[in-house]
């Protein structure tokens, strides 16, 4: 599953059959699994499906370093959509976890770090590790109810393999550009994947990114995401190009073309 992800939702049912036993309309499945599949396809595009040879350079935690090879994903701007409990978060990312546990890719543990002021405050600073059923791999979920810059300065920061900003609305929030600049200064090899609700918002996001006062590269320009959520969000807009679909479009930036 991990090394050969599907191309689009048409192929998803066959690919996910070992995990999702119950039939469901593709719209429901896309709502449940758009984040997992967007992550998996982005890792494929960034050539991160197999563990690179370089260890993570930062680990400020005071506990002893684990010998495990970790794939660390920062989900920045996370909120209730990514789950309000460990159980709920594992459910949101269930197909990603199943795929991760199905292959020999060199990673031992998948680390999901949910970061953002809209993360449940009661979960802030907590971490939970569990085995992935049917495999010798594990998943660790970390919650940080704070800005990415605050998390960076904290004691539990671990360098990410990739950063995901789902439906970020870069065009609408002034905090994003300095955050991206800080991300690329601290983690120059890390891809930053940004999704948008529709193509017009993706264009607006890209225009804002072009205003970054630093050199950066486009790993890929804004384009349609094959694993958008097919269920439309409620909106007052009725024009076809203004309807809202989670993760409709995506783009990826980094400080360099070189991955970890």
TrEMBL record:
Residues 37-234 form the Mitochondrial splicing suppressor 51-like C-terminal domain. This is Mitochondrial splicing suppressor 51-like C-terminal domain-containing protein. Pfam families: MSS51_C.
